[in-house]
Protein backbone atom coordinates (compact mmCIF):
# COMPACT_ATOMS: atom_id res chain seq x y z
CA UNK A 1 0.00 0.00 0.00
CA UNK A 2 1.44 3.33 -0.99
CA UNK A 3 -1.21 5.86 -0.11
CA UNK A 4 -4.23 6.43 2.09
CA UNK A 5 -7.50 6.01 0.19
CA UNK A 6 -10.42 8.38 0.65
CA UNK A 7 -12.33 5.53 2.32
CA UNK A 8 -9.50 5.06 4.83
CA UNK A 9 -9.20 8.79 5.39
CA UNK A 10 -12.90 9.08 6.12
CA UNK A 11 -12.59 6.20 8.58
CA UNK A 12 -9.74 8.04 10.30
CA UNK A 13 -11.83 11.22 10.51
CA UNK A 14 -14.84 9.35 11.90
CA UNK A 15 -12.68 7.46 14.42
CA UNK A 16 -10.99 10.65 15.59
CA UNK A 17 -14.28 12.46 16.13
CA UNK A 18 -15.81 9.40 17.85
CA UNK A 19 -12.88 9.38 20.30
CA UNK A 20 -13.29 13.11 20.87
CA UNK A 21 -16.93 12.60 21.83
CA UNK A 22 -16.07 9.54 23.99
CA UNK A 23 -13.54 11.67 25.90
CA UNK A 24 -15.88 14.71 25.99
CA UNK A 25 -13.22 16.86 24.32
CA UNK A 26 -13.93 20.35 23.00
CA UNK A 27 -15.09 20.55 19.35
CA UNK A 28 -12.32 19.13 17.16
CA UNK A 29 -11.10 19.66 13.63
CA UNK A 30 -9.29 16.80 11.90
CA UNK A 31 -7.45 16.54 8.61
CA UNK A 32 -5.90 13.62 6.73
CA UNK A 33 -3.09 14.40 4.26
CA UNK A 34 -1.42 12.09 1.77
CA UNK A 35 2.36 11.57 1.81
CA UNK A 36 2.80 14.62 -0.41
CA UNK A 37 1.00 16.81 2.11
CA UNK A 38 -2.16 17.18 0.01
CA UNK A 39 -5.53 17.03 1.74
CA UNK A 40 -7.65 13.89 1.37
CA UNK A 41 -10.37 14.50 3.97
CA UNK A 42 -11.31 17.10 6.55
CA UNK A 43 -14.05 17.72 9.12
CA UNK A 44 -14.65 20.59 11.57
CA UNK A 45 -17.12 19.92 14.38
CA UNK A 46 -19.81 22.50 15.13
CA UNK A 47 -18.31 25.14 17.42
CA UNK A 48 -14.71 24.58 16.32
CA UNK A 49 -13.24 28.03 15.63
CA UNK A 50 -12.29 29.61 12.30
CA UNK A 51 -8.55 28.93 12.10
CA UNK A 52 -8.79 25.23 13.04
CA UNK A 53 -8.56 23.96 9.44
CA UNK A 54 -5.22 25.74 9.02
CA UNK A 55 -3.92 24.65 12.45
CA UNK A 56 -4.83 20.99 11.88
CA UNK A 57 -3.22 21.12 8.45
CA UNK A 58 -0.06 22.83 9.73
CA UNK A 59 0.37 20.13 12.38
CA UNK A 60 0.08 17.32 9.83
CA UNK A 61 1.96 19.11 7.07
CA UNK A 62 4.78 20.01 9.45
CA UNK A 63 5.10 16.37 10.48
CA UNK A 64 5.49 15.37 6.82
CA UNK A 65 7.79 18.32 6.18
CA UNK A 66 10.31 17.23 8.81
CA UNK A 67 9.57 13.51 9.01
CA UNK A 68 8.61 13.46 12.70
CA UNK A 69 5.41 14.02 14.66
CA UNK A 70 4.38 17.56 15.58
CA UNK A 71 4.98 16.53 19.22
CA UNK A 72 8.68 16.06 18.41
CA UNK A 73 8.63 19.32 16.44
CA UNK A 74 7.32 20.99 19.61
CA UNK A 75 10.31 19.65 21.51
CA UNK A 76 12.67 20.75 18.74
CA UNK A 77 11.12 24.23 18.80
CA UNK A 78 12.24 24.63 22.43
CA UNK A 79 15.81 23.51 21.76
CA UNK A 80 16.16 25.08 18.32
CA UNK A 81 13.50 27.79 18.00
CA UNK A 82 15.13 29.64 15.12
CA UNK A 83 15.41 26.48 13.03
CA UNK A 84 11.73 25.55 13.46
CA UNK A 85 10.70 29.15 12.86
CA UNK A 86 12.69 29.25 9.64
CA UNK A 87 11.34 25.88 8.51
CA UNK A 88 7.76 27.04 9.18
CA UNK A 89 8.35 29.98 6.88
CA UNK A 90 9.43 27.65 4.10
CA UNK A 91 6.42 25.33 4.28
CA UNK A 92 3.41 26.71 2.33
CA UNK A 93 1.01 25.27 4.94
CA UNK A 94 3.20 26.41 7.84
CA UNK A 95 4.26 24.29 10.82
CA UNK A 96 2.49 24.20 14.22
CA UNK A 97 4.96 22.83 16.80
CA UNK A 98 2.51 21.11 19.17
CA UNK A 99 1.23 17.54 19.55
CA UNK A 100 -1.69 16.46 17.37
CA UNK A 101 0.11 15.95 14.03
CA UNK A 102 0.85 12.24 13.58
CA UNK A 103 2.57 10.42 10.72
CA UNK A 104 0.76 7.40 9.28
CA UNK A 105 2.76 4.35 8.10
CA UNK A 106 1.91 1.23 6.18
CA UNK A 107 2.86 -2.31 7.19
CA UNK A 108 6.39 -1.85 5.83
CA UNK A 109 6.94 1.32 7.82
CA UNK A 110 6.70 3.65 4.83
CA UNK A 111 5.08 7.02 5.51
CA UNK A 112 1.77 7.15 3.62
CA UNK A 113 0.33 10.34 5.06
CA UNK A 114 -0.41 12.27 8.25
CA UNK A 115 -3.29 13.19 10.50
CA UNK A 116 -3.70 16.58 12.19
CA UNK A 117 -6.10 17.30 15.04
CA UNK A 118 -6.79 20.54 16.96
CA UNK A 119 -9.41 21.89 19.34
CA UNK A 120 -8.57 20.56 22.80
CA UNK A 121 -5.20 20.32 24.59
CA UNK A 122 -2.38 19.10 22.37
CA UNK A 123 -2.16 15.82 24.29
CA UNK A 124 -5.88 15.17 23.81
CA UNK A 125 -5.71 16.17 20.16
CA UNK A 126 -2.98 13.56 19.65
CA UNK A 127 -4.91 10.88 21.54
CA UNK A 128 -7.90 11.42 19.26
CA UNK A 129 -5.68 11.27 16.16
CA UNK A 130 -4.16 7.98 17.32
CA UNK A 131 -7.64 6.52 17.89
CA UNK A 132 -8.63 7.55 14.37
CA UNK A 133 -5.55 5.97 12.81
CA UNK A 134 -6.18 2.81 14.80
CA UNK A 135 -9.82 2.72 13.66
CA UNK A 136 -8.57 2.52 10.07
CA UNK A 137 -6.22 -0.35 10.87
CA UNK A 138 -3.17 1.78 10.14
CA UNK A 139 -0.07 2.48 12.24
CA UNK A 140 1.14 5.78 13.71
CA UNK B 1 -30.85 27.52 10.45
CA UNK B 2 -28.01 30.00 10.53
CA UNK B 3 -25.03 27.92 9.44
CA UNK B 4 -24.27 24.61 7.82
CA UNK B 5 -23.64 21.90 10.41
CA UNK B 6 -20.91 19.29 10.01
CA UNK B 7 -23.64 16.66 9.54
CA UNK B 8 -25.17 18.67 6.70
CA UNK B 9 -21.76 19.32 5.16
CA UNK B 10 -20.92 15.62 5.19
CA UNK B 11 -24.28 14.91 3.52
CA UNK B 12 -23.41 17.47 0.83
CA UNK B 13 -20.02 15.83 0.28
CA UNK B 14 -21.53 12.34 0.07
CA UNK B 15 -24.29 13.51 -2.29
CA UNK B 16 -21.80 15.27 -4.55
CA UNK B 17 -19.54 12.22 -4.82
CA UNK B 18 -22.52 9.91 -5.35
CA UNK B 19 -23.63 12.08 -8.28
CA UNK B 20 -20.10 12.04 -9.66
CA UNK B 21 -20.10 8.23 -9.65
CA UNK B 22 -23.64 8.09 -11.11
CA UNK B 23 -22.49 10.31 -13.99
CA UNK B 24 -19.14 8.47 -14.31
CA UNK B 25 -17.24 11.72 -13.85
CA UNK B 26 -13.50 11.88 -13.33
CA UNK B 27 -12.32 11.74 -9.69
CA UNK B 28 -13.76 14.76 -7.86
CA UNK B 29 -12.73 16.92 -4.93
CA UNK B 30 -15.46 18.68 -2.97
CA UNK B 31 -15.35 21.25 -0.19
CA UNK B 32 -18.06 22.82 1.98
CA UNK B 33 -17.32 26.24 3.51
CA UNK B 34 -19.32 28.22 6.08
CA UNK B 35 -20.56 31.72 5.25
CA UNK B 36 -17.26 33.22 6.40
CA UNK B 37 -15.30 31.04 3.98
CA UNK B 38 -13.94 28.63 6.61
CA UNK B 39 -13.82 24.93 5.76
CA UNK B 40 -16.34 22.57 7.35
CA UNK B 41 -15.79 19.38 5.34
CA UNK B 42 -13.65 18.16 2.43
CA UNK B 43 -13.08 14.97 0.44
CA UNK B 44 -10.74 14.16 -2.47
CA UNK B 45 -11.48 10.99 -4.41
CA UNK B 46 -8.66 8.58 -5.21
CA UNK B 47 -6.89 9.80 -8.35
CA UNK B 48 -7.89 13.46 -7.92
CA UNK B 49 -4.72 15.52 -8.37
CA UNK B 50 -2.66 17.50 -5.87
CA UNK B 51 -4.03 21.03 -6.28
CA UNK B 52 -7.71 20.03 -6.23
CA UNK B 53 -8.24 21.00 -2.57
CA UNK B 54 -7.10 24.56 -3.33
CA UNK B 55 -9.09 24.77 -6.59
CA UNK B 56 -12.30 23.55 -4.95
CA UNK B 57 -11.77 26.01 -2.10
CA UNK B 58 -11.01 28.93 -4.42
CA UNK B 59 -14.23 28.27 -6.35
CA UNK B 60 -16.33 28.27 -3.18
CA UNK B 61 -14.42 31.06 -1.43
CA UNK B 62 -14.59 33.24 -4.52
CA UNK B 63 -18.36 32.81 -4.65
CA UNK B 64 -18.62 34.00 -1.04
CA UNK B 65 -16.12 36.81 -1.64
CA UNK B 66 -18.16 38.37 -4.45
CA UNK B 67 -21.64 37.11 -3.55
CA UNK B 68 -22.27 35.20 -6.81
CA UNK B 69 -21.55 31.69 -8.09
CA UNK B 70 -18.15 30.94 -9.62
CA UNK B 71 -20.03 30.42 -12.91
CA UNK B 72 -21.02 34.11 -12.85
CA UNK B 73 -17.47 35.02 -11.83
CA UNK B 74 -16.28 33.15 -14.92
CA UNK B 75 -18.55 35.31 -17.06
CA UNK B 76 -17.36 38.45 -15.26
CA UNK B 77 -13.75 37.42 -15.86
CA UNK B 78 -14.33 37.56 -19.62
CA UNK B 79 -15.94 41.01 -19.54
CA UNK B 80 -13.76 42.47 -16.81
CA UNK B 81 -10.59 40.36 -16.56
CA UNK B 82 -8.54 42.95 -14.68
CA UNK B 83 -11.20 43.35 -11.96
CA UNK B 84 -11.48 39.62 -11.30
CA UNK B 85 -7.71 39.24 -11.42
CA UNK B 86 -7.29 42.00 -8.86
CA UNK B 87 -10.03 40.59 -6.62
CA UNK B 88 -8.41 37.14 -6.76
CA UNK B 89 -5.20 38.66 -5.46
CA UNK B 90 -7.05 40.16 -2.48
CA UNK B 91 -8.76 36.93 -1.38
CA UNK B 92 -6.49 34.79 0.83
CA UNK B 93 -7.93 31.61 -0.74
CA UNK B 94 -7.86 33.08 -4.25
CA UNK B 95 -10.71 33.01 -6.78
CA UNK B 96 -11.15 30.40 -9.54
CA UNK B 97 -13.48 31.88 -12.20
CA UNK B 98 -15.14 28.68 -13.46
CA UNK B 99 -18.39 26.87 -12.66
CA UNK B 100 -18.41 24.52 -9.68
CA UNK B 101 -18.56 27.03 -6.81
CA UNK B 102 -22.15 27.34 -5.62
CA UNK B 103 -23.62 29.51 -2.83
CA UNK B 104 -25.85 27.73 -0.30
CA UNK B 105 -28.85 29.59 1.17
CA UNK B 106 -31.24 28.88 4.01
CA UNK B 107 -35.05 29.06 3.77
CA UNK B 108 -34.97 32.86 4.16
CA UNK B 109 -32.48 33.27 1.30
CA UNK B 110 -29.54 34.15 3.55
CA UNK B 111 -26.16 32.82 2.40
CA UNK B 112 -25.03 30.16 4.87
CA UNK B 113 -22.02 28.78 3.02
CA UNK B 114 -20.73 27.52 -0.30
CA UNK B 115 -19.77 24.29 -2.03
CA UNK B 116 -16.81 23.93 -4.38
CA UNK B 117 -16.25 21.00 -6.75
CA UNK B 118 -13.44 20.29 -9.20
CA UNK B 119 -12.11 17.36 -11.22
CA UNK B 120 -14.29 17.07 -14.33
CA UNK B 121 -15.56 19.81 -16.68
CA UNK B 122 -16.82 22.90 -14.90
CA UNK B 123 -20.40 22.17 -15.95
CA UNK B 124 -20.19 18.65 -14.54
CA UNK B 125 -18.49 19.90 -11.37
CA UNK B 126 -21.41 22.27 -10.84
CA UNK B 127 -24.01 19.58 -11.53
CA UNK B 128 -22.42 17.38 -8.86
CA UNK B 129 -22.35 20.29 -6.38
CA UNK B 130 -26.03 21.00 -6.98
CA UNK B 131 -26.88 17.32 -6.41
CA UNK B 132 -24.97 17.41 -3.12
CA UNK B 133 -26.75 20.55 -1.92
CA UNK B 134 -30.07 18.99 -2.89
CA UNK B 135 -29.22 15.80 -0.99
CA UNK B 136 -28.90 17.88 2.17
CA UNK B 137 -32.25 19.54 1.63
CA UNK B 138 -30.63 22.95 1.15
CA UNK B 139 -31.00 25.49 -1.66
CA UNK B 140 -28.39 26.70 -4.14
CA UNK C 1 -6.73 71.48 6.44
CA UNK C 2 -4.27 68.64 6.05
CA UNK C 3 -6.25 65.52 6.79
CA UNK C 4 -9.77 64.13 6.93
CA UNK C 5 -11.11 63.97 10.49
CA UNK C 6 -13.06 60.99 11.78
CA UNK C 7 -16.16 63.20 11.89
CA UNK C 8 -15.73 64.10 8.22
CA UNK C 9 -15.02 60.48 7.29
CA UNK C 10 -18.19 59.32 9.03
CA UNK C 11 -20.13 62.02 7.15
CA UNK C 12 -18.67 60.72 3.88
CA UNK C 13 -19.67 57.15 4.78
CA UNK C 14 -23.21 58.20 5.74
CA UNK C 15 -23.58 60.31 2.59
CA UNK C 16 -22.35 57.50 0.37
CA UNK C 17 -24.75 54.96 1.85
CA UNK C 18 -27.64 57.47 1.73
CA UNK C 19 -26.98 57.93 -2.00
CA UNK C 20 -26.85 54.17 -2.48
CA UNK C 21 -30.28 53.80 -0.90
CA UNK C 22 -31.67 56.79 -2.87
CA UNK C 23 -30.51 55.13 -6.11
CA UNK C 24 -31.64 51.65 -4.95
CA UNK C 25 -28.14 50.27 -5.48
CA UNK C 26 -27.06 46.82 -4.31
CA UNK C 27 -25.60 46.66 -0.76
CA UNK C 28 -22.47 48.82 -0.67
CA UNK C 29 -19.21 48.85 1.24
CA UNK C 30 -17.42 52.17 1.69
CA UNK C 31 -14.03 53.08 3.11
CA UNK C 32 -12.34 56.40 3.83
CA UNK C 33 -8.52 56.46 3.91
CA UNK C 34 -6.21 59.29 4.97
CA UNK C 35 -3.53 60.62 2.61
CA UNK C 36 -1.14 57.92 3.83
CA UNK C 37 -3.60 55.20 2.81
CA UNK C 38 -4.53 54.30 6.40
CA UNK C 39 -8.18 53.57 7.18
CA UNK C 40 -10.23 56.20 9.05
CA UNK C 41 -13.75 54.80 8.69
CA UNK C 42 -15.50 51.85 7.07
CA UNK C 43 -19.02 50.44 6.74
CA UNK C 44 -20.38 47.33 4.99
CA UNK C 45 -24.14 47.21 4.42
CA UNK C 46 -26.06 44.05 5.32
CA UNK C 47 -25.79 41.64 2.39
CA UNK C 48 -22.52 43.05 1.04
CA UNK C 49 -20.22 40.08 0.38
CA UNK C 50 -17.07 39.02 2.23
CA UNK C 51 -14.32 40.53 0.10
CA UNK C 52 -15.91 43.99 -0.19
CA UNK C 53 -13.74 45.54 2.56
CA UNK C 54 -10.59 44.59 0.64
CA UNK C 55 -12.02 45.66 -2.73
CA UNK C 56 -13.15 49.07 -1.44
CA UNK C 57 -9.76 49.56 0.20
CA UNK C 58 -7.83 48.50 -2.90
CA UNK C 59 -9.76 51.00 -5.02
CA UNK C 60 -9.01 53.87 -2.63
CA UNK C 61 -5.47 52.77 -1.81
CA UNK C 62 -4.67 52.32 -5.50
CA UNK C 63 -5.87 55.85 -6.20
CA UNK C 64 -3.51 57.19 -3.53
CA UNK C 65 -0.73 54.89 -4.71
CA UNK C 66 -0.73 56.29 -8.25
CA UNK C 67 -2.24 59.75 -7.64
CA UNK C 68 -5.26 59.29 -9.90
CA UNK C 69 -8.77 57.88 -9.47
CA UNK C 70 -9.34 54.14 -9.80
CA UNK C 71 -11.39 54.99 -12.92
CA UNK C 72 -8.23 56.32 -14.56
CA UNK C 73 -6.31 53.30 -13.29
CA UNK C 74 -8.91 51.15 -15.03
CA UNK C 75 -8.14 52.95 -18.30
CA UNK C 76 -4.41 52.62 -17.70
CA UNK C 77 -4.85 48.87 -17.05
CA UNK C 78 -6.19 48.45 -20.59
CA UNK C 79 -3.33 50.37 -22.21
CA UNK C 80 -0.58 49.18 -19.90
CA UNK C 81 -1.76 46.00 -18.19
CA UNK C 82 1.66 44.78 -17.12
CA UNK C 83 2.49 48.09 -15.44
CA UNK C 84 -0.74 48.16 -13.39
CA UNK C 85 -0.36 44.48 -12.56
CA UNK C 86 3.17 45.07 -11.32
CA UNK C 87 2.13 48.13 -9.32
CA UNK C 88 -0.72 46.16 -7.70
CA UNK C 89 1.82 43.61 -6.52
CA UNK C 90 3.86 46.34 -4.86
CA UNK C 91 0.98 47.93 -2.93
CA UNK C 92 0.25 46.06 0.36
CA UNK C 93 -3.50 46.75 -0.05
CA UNK C 94 -3.42 45.90 -3.76
CA UNK C 95 -4.97 47.94 -6.58
CA UNK C 96 -8.43 47.38 -8.09
CA UNK C 97 -8.51 49.04 -11.52
CA UNK C 98 -12.21 49.99 -11.68
CA UNK C 99 -14.18 53.16 -10.91
CA UNK C 100 -15.23 53.75 -7.29
CA UNK C 101 -11.92 54.89 -5.79
CA UNK C 102 -11.89 58.70 -5.63
CA UNK C 103 -9.21 61.08 -4.34
CA UNK C 104 -10.33 63.72 -1.85
CA UNK C 105 -8.78 67.22 -1.95
CA UNK C 106 -8.88 70.23 0.34
CA UNK C 107 -9.60 73.80 -0.77
CA UNK C 108 -6.00 74.24 -1.96
CA UNK C 109 -6.14 71.11 -4.11
CA UNK C 110 -3.93 69.04 -1.83
CA UNK C 111 -4.83 65.34 -1.60
CA UNK C 112 -6.07 64.63 1.92
CA UNK C 113 -7.36 61.10 1.44
CA UNK C 114 -9.48 58.83 -0.69
CA UNK C 115 -12.86 57.11 -0.70
CA UNK C 116 -13.47 53.59 -2.03
CA UNK C 117 -16.89 52.13 -2.79
CA UNK C 118 -17.90 48.69 -4.09
CA UNK C 119 -21.06 46.60 -4.41
CA UNK C 120 -22.90 47.82 -7.51
CA UNK C 121 -21.54 48.64 -10.98
CA UNK C 122 -18.30 50.63 -10.94
CA UNK C 123 -20.07 53.70 -12.30
CA UNK C 124 -22.69 53.56 -9.56
CA UNK C 125 -20.05 52.92 -6.92
CA UNK C 126 -18.28 56.08 -8.03
CA UNK C 127 -21.49 58.12 -8.06
CA UNK C 128 -22.17 57.12 -4.46
CA UNK C 129 -18.60 58.01 -3.45
CA UNK C 130 -18.91 61.45 -5.04
CA UNK C 131 -22.19 62.05 -3.18
CA UNK C 132 -20.50 61.12 0.08
CA UNK C 133 -17.56 63.46 -0.52
CA UNK C 134 -19.99 66.22 -1.42
CA UNK C 135 -22.00 65.60 1.76
CA UNK C 136 -18.87 66.36 3.78
CA UNK C 137 -18.23 69.59 1.92
CA UNK C 138 -15.04 68.26 0.40
CA UNK C 139 -13.89 68.08 -3.23
CA UNK C 140 -13.18 65.05 -5.39
CA UNK D 1 -30.26 37.15 15.51
CA UNK D 2 -27.67 35.34 13.47
CA UNK D 3 -25.21 38.08 12.61
CA UNK D 4 -24.32 41.60 13.62
CA UNK D 5 -26.08 44.16 11.42
CA UNK D 6 -24.36 47.33 10.24
CA UNK D 7 -26.68 49.33 12.52
CA UNK D 8 -25.60 47.26 15.52
CA UNK D 9 -21.94 47.48 14.52
CA UNK D 10 -22.14 51.27 14.28
CA UNK D 11 -23.77 51.36 17.72
CA UNK D 12 -20.87 49.27 19.07
CA UNK D 13 -18.35 51.65 17.50
CA UNK D 14 -20.12 54.73 18.88
CA UNK D 15 -20.43 53.17 22.34
CA UNK D 16 -16.77 52.19 22.39
CA UNK D 17 -15.58 55.67 21.43
CA UNK D 18 -17.99 57.32 23.91
CA UNK D 19 -16.50 55.19 26.68
CA UNK D 20 -13.01 56.11 25.55
CA UNK D 21 -13.86 59.82 25.85
CA UNK D 22 -15.61 59.28 29.22
CA UNK D 23 -12.45 57.60 30.55
CA UNK D 24 -10.15 60.16 28.86
CA UNK D 25 -8.30 57.38 27.04
CA UNK D 26 -5.80 58.02 24.27
CA UNK D 27 -7.24 58.11 20.72
CA UNK D 28 -8.79 54.72 19.95
CA UNK D 29 -9.38 52.62 16.86
CA UNK D 30 -12.27 50.14 16.92
CA UNK D 31 -13.37 47.45 14.51
CA UNK D 32 -16.42 45.16 14.39
CA UNK D 33 -16.06 41.88 12.47
CA UNK D 34 -18.73 39.32 11.58
CA UNK D 35 -18.37 35.70 12.72
CA UNK D 36 -16.30 34.89 9.64
CA UNK D 37 -13.79 37.63 10.46
CA UNK D 38 -14.97 40.06 7.76
CA UNK D 39 -15.15 43.75 8.64
CA UNK D 40 -18.56 45.37 9.17
CA UNK D 41 -17.56 48.75 10.64
CA UNK D 42 -14.43 50.61 11.67
CA UNK D 43 -13.45 54.00 13.09
CA UNK D 44 -10.06 55.54 13.95
CA UNK D 45 -10.09 58.62 16.16
CA UNK D 46 -8.02 61.65 15.20
CA UNK D 47 -4.47 61.09 16.43
CA UNK D 48 -4.67 57.28 16.42
CA UNK D 49 -1.55 56.01 14.63
CA UNK D 50 -1.16 54.34 11.23
CA UNK D 51 -1.15 50.64 12.12
CA UNK D 52 -4.15 50.80 14.47
CA UNK D 53 -6.62 49.44 11.89
CA UNK D 54 -4.51 46.30 11.50
CA UNK D 55 -3.91 45.93 15.26
CA UNK D 56 -7.60 46.27 16.10
CA UNK D 57 -8.44 43.77 13.36
CA UNK D 58 -5.78 41.27 14.45
CA UNK D 59 -7.12 41.35 18.02
CA UNK D 60 -10.68 40.65 16.88
CA UNK D 61 -9.73 38.22 14.10
CA UNK D 62 -7.44 36.32 16.43
CA UNK D 63 -10.27 35.90 18.93
CA UNK D 64 -12.47 34.41 16.20
CA UNK D 65 -9.61 32.27 14.87
CA UNK D 66 -9.03 30.53 18.20
CA UNK D 67 -12.46 30.91 19.79
CA UNK D 68 -11.32 32.88 22.86
CA UNK D 69 -10.73 36.57 23.69
CA UNK D 70 -7.42 38.18 22.80
CA UNK D 71 -6.86 38.51 26.58
CA UNK D 72 -6.83 34.71 26.85
CA UNK D 73 -4.62 34.51 23.76
CA UNK D 74 -2.21 36.85 25.56
CA UNK D 75 -2.07 34.41 28.47
CA UNK D 76 -1.63 31.47 26.08
CA UNK D 77 1.22 33.31 24.36
CA UNK D 78 3.18 33.34 27.63
CA UNK D 79 2.70 29.63 28.30
CA UNK D 80 2.91 28.47 24.69
CA UNK D 81 4.67 31.19 22.68
CA UNK D 82 5.58 28.99 19.73
CA UNK D 83 1.98 27.81 19.27
CA UNK D 84 0.54 31.33 19.23
CA UNK D 85 3.36 32.52 16.98
CA UNK D 86 2.66 29.74 14.52
CA UNK D 87 -1.10 30.33 14.62
CA UNK D 88 -0.57 34.05 13.98
CA UNK D 89 1.34 33.17 10.84
CA UNK D 90 -1.57 31.08 9.58
CA UNK D 91 -4.26 33.75 10.06
CA UNK D 92 -4.40 36.16 7.09
CA UNK D 93 -5.20 39.06 9.45
CA UNK D 94 -2.62 37.92 12.01
CA UNK D 95 -3.18 37.58 15.76
CA UNK D 96 -2.35 40.22 18.38
CA UNK D 97 -2.10 38.47 21.78
CA UNK D 98 -3.24 41.31 24.06
CA UNK D 99 -6.58 42.30 25.63
CA UNK D 100 -8.99 44.35 23.52
CA UNK D 101 -10.33 41.66 21.18
CA UNK D 102 -13.70 40.45 22.50
CA UNK D 103 -16.08 37.82 21.09
CA UNK D 104 -19.73 38.85 20.67
CA UNK D 105 -22.47 36.28 21.26
CA UNK D 106 -26.20 36.21 20.60
CA UNK D 107 -28.84 35.21 23.16
CA UNK D 108 -28.19 31.50 22.51
CA UNK D 109 -24.46 31.88 23.13
CA UNK D 110 -23.48 31.50 19.47
CA UNK D 111 -20.52 33.62 18.35
CA UNK D 112 -21.82 36.26 15.93
CA UNK D 113 -18.72 38.41 15.59
CA UNK D 114 -15.94 40.18 17.47
CA UNK D 115 -14.84 43.68 18.45
CA UNK D 116 -11.23 44.86 18.46
CA UNK D 117 -9.99 48.02 20.17
CA UNK D 118 -6.50 49.53 20.36
CA UNK D 119 -4.89 52.83 21.35
CA UNK D 120 -4.62 52.86 25.14
CA UNK D 121 -3.50 50.11 27.54
CA UNK D 122 -4.87 46.68 26.69
CA UNK D 123 -7.05 46.69 29.81
CA UNK D 124 -8.56 50.04 28.87
CA UNK D 125 -9.00 48.96 25.25
CA UNK D 126 -10.99 45.96 26.47
CA UNK D 127 -13.10 48.06 28.85
CA UNK D 128 -14.06 50.34 25.97
CA UNK D 129 -14.93 47.33 23.77
CA UNK D 130 -17.16 45.88 26.48
CA UNK D 131 -18.95 49.21 26.86
CA UNK D 132 -19.56 49.29 23.12
CA UNK D 133 -20.95 45.77 23.04
CA UNK D 134 -23.17 46.61 25.99
CA UNK D 135 -24.43 49.76 24.26
CA UNK D 136 -25.71 47.57 21.43
CA UNK D 137 -27.53 45.25 23.82
CA UNK D 138 -25.26 42.33 22.92
CA UNK D 139 -23.22 39.99 25.13
CA UNK D 140 -19.45 39.58 25.34
UniProtKB/TrEMBL annotation, chains A, B, C, D:
- State the Gene3D superfamilies in the record: Haem-degrading domain (3.30.450.150)
Q: Which Pfam families match?
A: HbpS-like (PF03928)
The protein here is known as Uncharacterized protein GlcG (DUF336 family)
Lineage, uppermost ranks: Bacteria, Pseudomonadati, Pseudomonadota, Alphaproteobacteria, Sphingomonadales
Amino acid sequence: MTSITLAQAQTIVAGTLKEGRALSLKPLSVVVLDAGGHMIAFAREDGSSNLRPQIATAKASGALALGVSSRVIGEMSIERPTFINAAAGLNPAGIVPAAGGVLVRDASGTIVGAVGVTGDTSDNDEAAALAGINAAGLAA
